[in-house]
């Protein structure tokens, strides 16, 4: 087993950002991505300053995340954009091409700040020969998540891809992990989850009986009741942990 005992592992599930893919400079992407979104809207006759738009956007975003802490729901990013515009006096529903176009303008800029971890391909190649491989990611722009998987040629290794914005559930909700397990046909006791956040990627999978491995990308803030079964510094270390399972 991962910690002092034998465990029959059948599936390895991964977080996406700061696990398989690395976000450069933390949230450095946010202002330029939001600027691209605003520039797109400005071309569609949305006449507000960037500062006005940014203020309304973060008010809406803060409200969304405040609600999601309890509901663990993940509305698509389009809804966030639509609600921001309504707050500024513009009526565009979430399915309007103006809204979806603005979302993709944000996403295209965001993608410039994402790179492949140097160990990802090697680790996935080796693990996929022995285990079912899955991805469970919190991301409100699932189309962008799938574009990134395509860009870095990761799709071929993945037996299931679950992105929160597609199913309106976000980690640490048990539902998102249970959906992954059902899709793979694997019992929780035979699955491992690898991610970089204690509250989402340790507490979440352990709540349904999945073994949780924390990859430490930065100093970790303590989270009550979120103790990983193992901690690694790099993806390559995962191969050693799993080799006797």
What's the quick description here?
The chain is of the alpha/beta class and 245 residues long. It contains ten helices and eight strands.
Q: Which properties best describe this structure?
A:
10 helices; elongated; 2 domains; Rossmann fold; alpha/beta; 13% strand
Word description of this protein:
- The protein is of the alpha/beta class and 245 residues long.
- The chain has 2 domains: 136 residues, HAD superfamily/HAD-like (Rossmann fold); 83 residues.
- It has 10 helices and 8 strands.
- The strands form 2 sheets. Strands 5-4-1-6-7-8 form a 6-stranded parallel beta sheet, with helices on both faces.
- The mean pLDDT is 94.
Helices and strands, with pairings:
Blueprint: E1 11-14, E2 21-23, H1 30-43, H2 50-71, H3 77-87, H4 97-110, E3 114-116, H5 120-128, E4 132-137, H6 142-151, E5 160-163, H7 164-167, H8 174-184, E6 191-195, H9 198-206, E7 211-215, E8 230-232, H10 236-242
Parallel strand pairs: 1-4, 1-6, 4-5, 6-7, 7-8
Antiparallel strand pairs: 2-3
Domain module count: 2
The gross shape turns out to be elongated
Largest sheet: 6 strands, parallel
- The chain-level structural class is alpha/beta
Number of strands: 8
Instruction: Extract low-pLDDT stretches.
Output: none
Integer-rounded radius of gyration? 19 Å
Q: Helices and strands, in N-to-C order?
A: EEHHHHEHEHEHHEHEEH
Q: If classified by CATH, what would the architecture of the largest domain be?
A: 3-Layer(aba) Sandwich
- CATH structural class of the largest domain: Alpha Beta
Write down the CATH topology of the largest domain.
Answer: Rossmann fold
